[in-house]
Amino acid sequence: MRKIALVTGSRGEYGYIRPVVCEIQKNPDLEYYIIATNLHLLSEFGSSIEEIERDGFKVSDRIYMALDGYTTASMAKSLGVFLMGITDVLTRIAPDFVLLAGDRGEQLMAAVAAAHMNIPIAHIQAGELSGNIDGMTRHAITRFAHVHLAASADAAQRLRQMGEQDFRIHLVGAPQLDDLLNPSYARPQDAMQQFRLDPGQPIVLLVFHSVTEEFDDAATQAGELLEAVSSMSLQTVAIFPNNDAGNVAIRQQLAQYRHPFIRIGRNVPRDVYAGLMSVANVMVGNSSSGLIEAPCFKLPAVNVGDRQRGRLRGKNVIDVTYDRNAITKAIRTALSEDFKHYLLQHCDNPYLGDGHVSHRIVQLLKGISVTEELMKKNLAF
Amino acid sequence: METNKLDDFTITTSGSIREAMVKITANKHRVVVVLDGKKVVGTVSDGDIRRALLRGVLSIAPVNNIMNVNCIVSQERDPEKLAEIIRKERVTVLPVVDQSSVLVDIFLAYEPLI
Predict the structure, then answer these.
(1) Do A255 and B69 touch (CB under 8 A)?
(2) In sequence order, what are the beta bridge partners of A320?
(3) Mind listing the domains of chain B with CATH numbers?
(4) Residue A333 zone, left/alpha/beta (φ > 0; ψ -120 to 50; rest)
(5) Is residue A377 within 8 Å of residue A162, measured between CB atoms?
(6) pLDDT band at residue A380 under the 50/70/90 scheme
(7) Do A265 and B57 touch (CB under 8 A)?
(8) Could you tell me if residue A249 is left (phi over 0), alpha (psi between -120 and 50 degrees) or otherwise beta?
(9) What pTM was estimated for this model as a whole?
């Protein structure tokens, strides 16, 4: 029996690991341990742990970590709280593998703990570029991880250039796309009904998180974005940001720009979020889902600012700065018939997804031998 | 609605869950409307409070943390149409707002029993 521990702190990561956990369940010689933390445990952010339980999964541990205040300092200190918690949890579970995903601080702390405790680490979505503190975090996780699971050829190549040994790098794809391709998400009519959307009118999906390096500008940035969106009076579903430094200012702006045509979601479940993507006509903001998931729906994404700087993107992405006029213009382009036709012909997803990514990941975790070669990292290059 | 009654039907985002329970008890409509300044930003129902308490949220926590942000509001002014929305959406309290989401009135499904 091989025990696999997984860490999730937000809806985004849960989307990565959900299909993997489904796949682990099919294997009698594997056992999963879901460690839920950060946003999943906070009412204010929608208590999304309930979504994990609704999916029929057992949550092995809950690690409360978020210190209130949501400044850059409280973010760092919260990670310290998590590092202490995860160490005790890993001691108790004694997993054979820790499977991490993405680029968040919790994942890095789990990597630090597991690496020190000689537990092999596999890392989903390794090697990609992203702006923000997240980009640094992702590459730091790479240094601690023993197995790198890349979602694109570009990411695999970057891992090699970072000096990671070839045998550690596996181009498997993006597991979160499995649920979209197979497909397993809310029906369009249900997603629309939940937010009282009119299918006859364009639908805007707005997801905007703060950029930690631009913490002080969060209110101005959100203001420009919301000024643009509200001036167009289009029916919009705006999802609350995560709890990174600057989120309070963004949520205040959302309250300021509240209009009857703007619906708000505190934290929509993963399946409803995918359902919204399937009915939306344009995504606006800076979520990675505009780059990774949206191409599956041929959905245009107006990507604002630097949060996704450098990240691999397809033809559905229109990059703009924090300028209300530029944002309005980009939304108009995204909604135009011309752009729609263009995407129908040219919108391929640059991230690898064929509906079997989680299967490949689980086969890998099942078969991989934990040898001295795997555990002793050679960082010379 | 008369202005003096409006107080029992509204709470600010920083108001506590306990305060919401007091207002709901007084207004007898199982729901209180949450305001940020003059704007409607959510509602808190008996059910929202029950679910929060079961999750371990303390009654001193602000309603901001547990309110339904995807609440139903209307820009309609015609009482018959408002009554229709109330029936269709099965709500007890329907905030009436202007185009900037500023609260104009609160329409009720029924008059308080006592």
Answers:
(1) no
(2) A304
(3) 3-108 (3.10.580.10)
(4) alpha
(5) no
(6) low
(7) no
(8) alpha
(9) 0.90
- In this prediction the ipTM stands at 0.85
The CATH superfamily of A188-346 is: Glycogen Phosphorylase B; (3.40.50.2000)
Instruction: Please judge whether A265 and B61 are an interchain contact, meaning their C-beta atoms are less than 8 angstroms apart.
Output: no
- The domain ranges of chain A are 2-181+355-375, 188-346
User: Average per-residue pLDDT in chain A?
Assistant: 95
pLDDT in tens, A87-99: 999 999 999 999 9
Q: Which of A43, A256, A266 sits opposite B69 (nearest CB)?
A: A266
The C-alpha of B30 sits at a distance from chain A's nearest C-alpha, in angstroms, of 20
Residues 299-338 of A with CB under 8 A from B: none
Window 191-250 of A: residues touching B by CB (8 A cutoff) are 194-196, 240
A62 touches chain B (CB under 8 A): no
Pairs across A and B, CB distance < 8 A: 43
Q: Pick the closest to residue B94 from A260, A309, A71 (CA basis).
A: A260
Pick the CATH number of A2-181+355-375 from 3.30.920.30, 3.30.70.270, 3.50.50.60, 3.40.50.2000: 3.40.50.2000
d(CA A123, CA A116): 16
pLDDT digits (tens, 9 = 90+) for A5-54: 999 999 888 999 999 999 999 999 999 999 999 999 998 888 899 999 99
* Chain A residues with CB-CB distance to B101 below 8 A: 258-260
Beta bridge partner(s), residue B91: none
